[in-house]
Design goal:
Structural class: alpha+beta
Number of strands: 11
Strand order of the largest sheet: 6-5-4-3-7
Largest sheet: 5 strands, antiparallel
Radius of gyration: 28 Å
Number of helices: 13
Distance between the termini: 73 Å
Amino acid sequence: MSAGRLLSVLLLLQSRGRMSARAIAEELGVSVRTAYRDVERLQGAGVPVCAEPGRGGGYRLLDGYRTRLTGMSEGEARALLFAGLPGAAADLGLAAEVTAARLKLLAALPAGLRDEAVRTAAVFHVDAPGWYREPDRTPHLPVFVDATLTRRVVEARYRRWRAPQEVSRRLRPYGLVLKSGVWYVVAATEGGTAATYRVSQVLDAVPAEERFEPPRDFDLAAYWAAYLEEFQARRYTGTATLRLSPRGRRRLPDNVAPEVVRAVDATATAVGGDGWVEAVVPTESTAHACGELLRLGADVEVVAPAGLRRAMAETVGTLARAYGLPGSA
């Protein structure tokens, strides 16, 4: 039986007022039977918990009783950074600490401010992962959390896109970044500069005894901003000239990257009198651009380059043959 959980029950009753055993159980992720036992143990320890039977009843603390046991542990203090991000806290292995820290904060507030805090928390929710994809699996993320905070080297096996795909690295993690629901660790190898690793691609991670000191001038936010800028420069290696129907232009934000949408807005010129426009957009590769633009169907036409126009035509021809359309043989 966890003494920490008993304290959580006590702080719940102090911050929420009357609560049923079922509500306590749901809040702490335990069974209703366990919630009953925890309340009985609190009563046995001399805490004045009153039981109010009947519909709308439950447990409450005797009027005027207030615990001063609101000191926070180191883990709970860290968890405050993620109090508004329950999903991120769970990824980092701090879900229990976030719950405990929130309860202690609420218990320490005067009644009026406590009610306002509860109302505020009830109307904001952060859901970081993007649409249309499963969230990354990051079983090794807690290792990097601890290593980042304690400045400990991590022995890692990592899967990358180029050969050899599996590599071993001794990483010195400087920081963690959550980008669109995807976790990245910014780390350096021995004698190397900082690089970015997607945590879901880590195959194994074991903390070593060796400690390290990050560079004094390292700034995680500045590094990430520079990394994104450099990534975009590497990402787009060419351009394409497109013609888009009015409907195609409306559908553009749901099917291509924001950079492509901005390029259309900046370069669009009318062609004909039916609302179609011609624009120049950045492209990653012929295959990638073909895959993205085909989502727009007949609402887009590639004017140039010839290789991309040919790839679009060949794909459409293959589809026509697959569906047995006349004249497609």
